[in-house]
Amino acid sequence: MTLRMKHVSKTFKDGPNAFKALNDASLNVNRGEFVAVIGPSGSGKSTFLSTAGALLSPTSGSVEIDGTPIAGLRDKAKTRLRLDKIGFVFQTANLIPYLNVTDQLRIINVMAKNKKRTGYETNLLNHFGLEHRTRHFPNELSGGERQRVAIARALVNEPDLILADEPTASLDSKRGREVVELIASEIHERGKAGIMVTHDERVLDLCDRVFMIKDGQLMETETIRS
Amino acid sequence: MFLAIRELLHAKFRYILIGFIMVLITVLILMISGLAKGLSADNASSIQNLNADNLVIESGVEQELTKSFLPESAVRETAQAESVNEAVPLVIRMSSASVTGSEQQHDVAIFGTDLQGMLTPDVIEGTKPVDSNEVIADVSLQKEGIAIGDTIAFRGHDGEYTVTGFAENQRYSHTPVIYMSMAGEKINAVAIQTAEGERNGGLEPTYDILSKKEVLQGIPSYSQEQASLNMMIIFLFVIAAFVLAIFFYVITMQKKAQFGVLRALGSQTSYIINNLLFQVVIISIVCIAIAIGMTYGIKMLLPDDMPFVMTAGNTVQTSVLLLAVSLIGSLISLFQVVKVDPVEAIEGGA
């Protein structure tokens, strides 16, 4: 089991009131499994993803990533966990503007002080059809290319868990679907656990399971594909 | 320093702009401190280089050498004190000199002492005086046309004197110093060489005993001159710190979202901080190096008699201080980096 969330709640202080962004959410994601979480804005999607991605510690309940409980971890250890075990794909690609495509991937391995993966970066870029773009900067790429670089970046640390935050948001429906197809195929082929938060219902057929989040509560909807 | 270098290269223009400002400020600091050093030497190099540990003067004259008057017997009296190794008289008179047969007057400061004593400076040209009508002059008088062997007369002084040698760095109150023998006059001070660790040498409290530093402060205009220049230098340091601080603060604010992404991707705060500090250090070092080169170039263009002194020690000290000031200036940016929350990478666009 790569991600195991048990009765996770997350409460934020909102002035004098407490606001429960996540309420008793439980979810297990296995290797090779791609899970979608949908819900209206403000429903707790971001909090859910941040908690699953070791960016936030839950107020109660437990989160385990590849067998490591994140509850007791210090910030530094959580950061290291993200670097080693998690790949993020953000809403707007969020590439570093002054790094060219190759360096977008290299920075991850530089931070991880992992020199062994040097060839892996090139392989990934070739695999994603970006070999002719390696020297280009993000502002010289199309939206789809940027998102492909972001997916390659999410894979370069060979993570166990891939988290995607509305990866189709800045793309038209055709490009968006291609991107999600790509994420899904990588997750299935490489045996990663994947979660995608989205409100784009047209790509849900590419996911193995679909969850709905509403007012902080997570529920599995009827399985669309299986 | 993967990120730092790539960003510097990618955003060349903005870093060149800030570098340009830094270079100008640094040149200004180096120029003014060169001028401060130069003026200080011009005003008091004879005192700074005086071969004495302390000066004994009349008490209650507020360190002003030229206001102090002692009887000549004070030299003998001082010499008898236990820890005083050597004591010689010092008389300072402002005067003007003219070479025999010439109308031209040269402003000079006469340092009267026992020319066989310790105060007589080493000559860089010519010989040390033997007779009482022979004198040593500061080498700057050579540029004013006085040569070895010339006989000169001083206004307000009887007799004619022969210049036998020139000494270096002997200026007082922005005029060249002439060392001559003086006997039977009231003296301004007794210069003493004391045994190690002894300051007053067991002297009577009727005298004030001043270090050379204290004497410098007593030279009219010396401390005012230095204080105003030093204030400019301090202000420039503060300005440099603020310019860099604001620049990096604004840039860091702009990059906060980026840092959030990096943090989410697994970058430790220390990694980002190191990259930021590296940028500050690189920019500072490059700017300081360029500024030192420019200042040397300007120095070459300055007229010879301009009081401008640029020493390696002073330059290194200024450079190190500037680097330190730049790093201090970047502290507020570091606080911004520490506050970056990786959660914003996900919530930022939601």
Commentary on this structure:
The complex is a heterodimer of chains A (226) and B (350). By secondary structure, chain A is of the alpha/beta class. Chain A contains six helices and ten strands, in the order E-E-E-H-E-E-H-E-H-H-H-E-H-E-E-E. In chain A, the strands form two sheets. A six-stranded mixed β-sheet of chain A has the order 6-7-8-3-9-10. The two termini of chain A are 19 Å apart. Chain B has 350 residues and is α+β, with helices and mostly antiparallel strands. Chain B has two domains: 169 residues, no CATH class; 145 residues, no CATH class. Helices cover 49% and strands 19% of the residues of chain B. Chain B is built from eleven helices and eleven strands. In chain B, strand 8 and strand 9 form a beta hairpin. Chain B is elongated and about 90 Å long. The two termini of chain B are 31 Å apart.
For the structure shown, list the relevant keywords.
heterodimer, A: about 230 residues, alpha/beta, Rossmann fold, six-stranded mixed sheet, four-stranded antiparallel sheet, B: about 350 residues, alpha+beta, six-stranded mixed barrel, about 20% strand, elongated, Putative hemin transport system permease protein HrtB (chain B), transmembrane (chain B), ABC-4/HrtB_transporter (chain B), transport (chain B), transmembrane helix (chain B)
